[in-house]
From TrEMBL:
Entry protein name: Glutamate 5-kinase
Biological function: Catalyzes the transfer of a phosphate group to glutamate to form L-glutamate 5-phosphate.
Native organism: Actinomadura rubrisoli
GO CC aspect terms: cytosol
GO biological process: L-proline biosynthetic process
Keyword Cytoplasm part of the UniProt annotation: yes
Domain called PUA: residue spans: 276-355
Pathway terms, separated by semicolons: Amino-acid biosynthesis; L-proline biosynthesis; L-glutamate 5-semialdehyde from L-glutamate: step 1/2
PROSITE patterns attached to this UniProt entry: GLUTAMATE_5_KINASE, PUA
Lineage per the UniProt record: Bacteria, Bacillati, Actinomycetota, Actinomycetes, Streptosporangiales
UniProt xrefs under CDD domains: AAK_G5K_ProB (cd04242), PUA_G5K (cd21157)
InterPro entries: AceGlu_kinase-like_sf, Asp/Glu/Uridylate_kinase, G5K_ProB, Glu/AcGlu_kinase, Glu_5kinase, Glu_5kinase/COase_Synthase, Glutamate_5-kinase_CS, PUA
Amino acid sequence: MSEREAIEKARRIVVKAGSSSLTTPEGTIHAGRIDALVDVLAARRAAGTEIVFVSSGAIAAGLGPLGLTRRPPDLATQQAAASVGQGLLFARYTTSFARHGATVGQVLLTADDMMRRSHHRNAQRTLAQLLALGVLPIVNENDTVATDEIRFGDNDRLAALVAHLTRADALVLLSDVDALYTGDPRRPGARRIDDVRGPSDLAGIELGASGRVGTGGMVTKVEAARIAGIPVVLTNAASAAHALAGDAVGTLFHPADGRRPSTRHLWLAHATTGQGRVTLDAGAVDAVVGHRKSLLPAGVTGVDGDFAAGDPVDLCDGDGRVVARGLVNYDASEIPELMGRSTRWLARELGPEYEREIIHRDDLVVLTDRRGEGNL
């Protein structure tokens, strides 16, 4: 079965729409566009497919009511706009889906909800239960409290990770262009790309910058397709029905062969920034990269940065090359005393609470292989 046929027969699909597909340039909700998209989603749902909808647009929808003409540069005003816009946006979805007898549920996520074990499980359970109850989940990033992740990428990567959370069969990314092109499609000579099967198909492509009200460009959509691990279609909202039907529209990203990494590992690799650096000796690099082991204090030779226990940190080899990232179990100030020591010695000299890893292997993602090539 081809990937297009897999989309046509998919049991569960995640659909993501960007700000430009949902709002006007003036910063208000575009009711006509939303109703048209809802009609498409409701029709596919009525045909027996479970739909999870990832919606951008909270900040953009709040601009008009606040008298703003463009996306504000400062975080506090972005959060205020999101606070206003999110309620308006979800109210519109509730009304629009009600025309089809569909009940919707709002799910707001942050990076912590993907990284922390308990938050991750709660998000997964909530989404599963909503679907089991026949509710259509509408997911957005919680922009009212998000900090660095508020500029994460117009929810493209969030949509890919929600696809993992829900074990979806396909992902459809709706943008303001109908496909991926080799350059700006408004300029002569830009060639449309129908299929992407690997990195070689992306060679020489100019990935555009973000839009006026959104935050993502093509680069975040390509990245989302790369980490999704399922068939991904990139097209515009006007082609949504054809994309969901498996028709030959947009750009189809074919999934790479192999087992899906866990959602938490994907988020750690692609949605976080190391808050510091921990340097490893050669033996620790081999253990972490080559054998997927936990990082123990004995293998640490240096630490840099000001981070707290639970923060993501980059793990580096002796040449300073980042080889992995993980959620650290100690504050930066604690690590110098632990470096080069065995956990048994630490437990005996400092107390039993120190008989633990610097980073447990379940909270660690390898970013390179032994040859120095990208891993995820």
